[in-house]
Specification:
The complex is a heterodimer of chains A (109) and B (116). By secondary structure, chain A is mostly beta strands. Chain A has strands at residues 5-7, 10-14, 19-24, 31-37, 43-50, 55-58, 61-66, 71-76, 85-92, 97-99, 103-108. Chain B is globular. Classes of the chains: A mainly beta (109), B mainly beta (116).
Chain lengths: 109, 116
């Protein structure tokens, strides 16, 4: 079974609004990553946050990590129609990545 | 720069037919290589990973097999496809050497397989 579970499963917002997605995991981690997948395409790495970090920014992306709650959130600010995609969190161990089930984000123009 | 190729992009095969999907990586040496399957609207299921030529680890019992005949080539195969083998197959790589914690994977464009 997938370790990561994203919430919500689907999200629809208007362009310009912020989008927040959450991820929960079960075991101890060294880092947590977020990926994006456009429909019918491969995944693209967005951002990585290490277990000793609480928050990280990259452009319009903001990721938080709460290791005590085993959860992470991805915030996309000022969303654009081009942000429409599925977003996955992933945790990694020895040669293995465990991906969540993903959040499908739709940004309406 | 590194690139990863997968082919074919789309494949429609009858039940019971064989399968061969190929993945190649350029611009890096000794990568770790991975095969995932993604059901429609779902997350990724790790099928196989390889840390070197001829070294294959299988994550789930299944109708598929994998081989790594060359450093940057990873092949997914089946002798007889089942309906349940339909899905989106993704190949990925990352850098070797980080035994305890992998950090970033780079994905190919994927192969959509439909078994009829």
């Amino acid at each position: 079974s997938q370790q990561g579970e994203e919430d919500p499963q689907a999200l629809s917002i208007q362009e310009g609004e912020n989008a927040t997605m959450n991820c929960s995991y079960k075991t101890s981690i060294n880092n947590l990553q977020w990926y994006r997948q456009n429909s019918g395409r491969g995944l693209v790495h967005l951002i990585l946050i290490r277990s000793n970090e609480r928050e990280k920014h990259s452009g319009r992306l903001r990721v938080t990590l709460d290791t005590s709650k085993k959860s992470s959130s991805l915030l996309i600010t000022a969303s654009r129609a081009a942000d429409t995609a599925s977003y996955f969190c992933a945790t990694s161990g020895t040669y293995k990545y465990i991906f969540g089930t993903g959040t499908r984000l739709k940004v309406l123009a | 720069s590194q690139t990863i190729h997968q082919w074919p992009a789309t494949l429609v095969q009858p039940v019971g037919s064989p399968l061969s999907l190929e993945c190649t990586v350029e611009g890096t040496s000794n990568p770790n290589l991975y095969w995932y399957r993604q059901a429609a609207g779902r997350g990724l299921q790790l099928l196989f990973y390889s840390v070197g030529i001829g070294q294959i680890s299988s994550e789930v019992p299944q109708n598929l097999s994998a081989s790594r005949p060359q450093d940057r080539q990873f092949i997914l195969s089946s002798k007889k496809l089942l309906l349940s083998d339909s899905g989106f197959y993704l190949c990925a790589w990352d850098t070797s050497g980080s035994y305890f914690s992998q950090e970033t994977q780079y994905f190919g464009p994927g192969t959509r397989l439909l078994v009829l």
